[in-house]
Design goal:
Helix content: under 10%
Number of helices: 0
Structural class: mainly beta
Strand order of the largest sheet: 5-6-7-8-9
Mean pLDDT: 83
Strand content: 35-45%
Low-confidence stretches: 68-73
Length: 124
């Protein structure tokens, strides 16, 4: 993968950006291949805009995974504030516009409802 601006490009037609809410990379397919969803991309690697919103889910929040403990990566009690691992299941939903990430209210991380700038990370 090559870094261009705040993004990394992948050979599969995706670009990756570092999400400060999840502290993980999120991939967005921007080159259509006919079989997978494709986002609109303004082509600006310094101040990218993707349309529509970017929704990343894991654990029991994955559609069709069922309730608590039913997801492929969910551990029983992961949402227990005392004994669980709050990072094992979650939702990250955002708009990426002009190099800013607007986190929507359904995010399960601490940046829900906030807007922050995209920044480059060597590990993304």
């Amino acid at each position: 993968m090559a870094r261009i601006g705040v993004l990394r490009t992948a050979d599969n037609g995706s670009v990756l950006f570092h999400c400060p809410g999840c502290d993980q990379p999120h991939a967005v397919r921007v080159v259509p291949d006919g079989s997978k969803p494709c986002w609109g991309f303004n082509g600006d690697h310094e101040r990218p805009t993707f349309t529509p919103s970017v929704l990343v889910t894991w654990g029991h929040h994955v559609p069709g995974a069922g309730g608590r403990g039913a997801g492929p990566h969910c551990q029983y009690g992961c949402d227990d504030p005392v004994d669980g691992n709050p990072a094992c299941c979650g939702v990250c939903h955002s708009f990426v516009r002009a190099g800013q990430i607007q986190f929507l209210g359904d995010c399960t991380h601490a940046l829900a409802g906030q807007t922050v700038p995209l920044t480059a990370r060597d590990d993304t």
